[in-house]
């Protein structure tokens, strides 16, 4: 989340360099890619990449994760396939029954997590996450 001010943003009451004209939104980075997961068969995706997406989506309760919201890239060093999740506009829904994770049905999701991933999950502090969300205005 960022606060930003620019004259080209929509300012219905006219632009002035004033705090009330700042906009709040997300800062996004362009990711070079060869398409989305929707464009190719899911069986080719590396297990660790699918697990990375799963940990993020469960942590954010991303209710709109489908193959079109995951970009596929190739690592320049060794050509390794890299998955990049995009479109986090429906995270933290009011009802968890709204969550859909397409990757849940991929065979990679049925593989056990690596010890590194398990250690990362263990290091997460949900209470700290809740406090951070509250600090930023989430209830």
Automatic annotation (TrEMBL):
Q: What class of enzyme is it?
A: transferase
For this protein, the record's Gene3D superfamilies field holds: 1.10.1070.20
Q: What Pfam family is a match for this entry?
A: PI3_PI4_kinase
Catalytic activity, EC: 2.7.1.67
Which top-rank group of organisms is this from?
A: Eukaryota
Report whether Transferase shows up as a keyword of the record: yes
* Protein family according to the UniProt entry: Belongs to the PI3/PI4-kinase family. Type II PI4K subfamily.
Give the protein's recorded name: 1-phosphatidylinositol 4-kinase
Q: Which organism is it from?
A: Arabidopsis halleri
What does UniProt list as this organism's lineage?
A: Eukaryota, Viridiplantae, Streptophyta, Embryophyta, Tracheophyta
